[in-house]
Amino acid sequence: MAKDLKILVAALVFTFLLIIGFAFWQGKPEKEENPEPIVAGDVVGVEINPLSYELGDVPINGGVVTKEYEVKNSTEGVLKLKKLATSCMCTTASFEVGETKTKFFGMEGHGDKNPPVNIEIGPGQSGKVVTRFDPAAHGPQGVGPFDRSIYLTFSDPAGVKELKFNGVVVK
Predict the structure, then answer these.
(1) Which of 86, 108, 127, 171 is most solvent-facing, going by the fewest CB within 10 Å?
(2) How many domains does the chain have?
(3) Where does the pLDDT of residue 11 fall: very low under 50, low under 70, confident under 90, or very high at 90 and above?
(4) Maximal CA-CA distance, the chain
(5) 147-162: per-residue pLDDT in tens?
(6) Which residues contact 132 (CB under 8 A, 6 or more apart)?
(7) 139's torsion region: left (phi>0), alpha (psi -120 to 50) or beta?
(8) Does one domain contain both 59 and 123?
(9) Separation of alpha carbons 129 and 148, rounded Å
(10) What CATH number should be reported for the domain holding residue 95?
(11) Which domain holds residue 151?
């Protein structure tokens, strides 16, 4: 009986240590390589026209709304656009400069990250952001006011430029 009690106590101690070790291991935050929080701010030498659009009433079944923003390098150096992202799954954006065009990129999140675009914008050169907004993306419960953003992440000079649009999805 004493031998069985020793085995039971040893098994309980082992199980307890295993549970504590597993909880400690799971509680450690994963180290993320090059975390890049989206913090919009001024990027010297990047001119955007327009900086935002007021779309007004957008019918939910009216189809995708497309808008363009001009992006101009007003410096004497080369600007490097690193990444494009949007604030919501209902919005996608691409970038065009000269003969170079990116695919359309959307919202990042849930572990997904948009790949780098690494586009250079020469001194005085202009490109454009083409944005698509799908008012039906959220279904019938998506009616009402909305504010959306497109984030242009630059690596040289470093910073994020935020483009905006808003309106009201109506039935």
Answers:
(1) 171
(2) 2
(3) low
(4) 88
(5) 999 999 998 778 999 9
(6) 64, 65, 66, 91, 92, 93, 104
(7) left
(8) yes
(9) 14
(10) 2.60.40.10
(11) 46-170
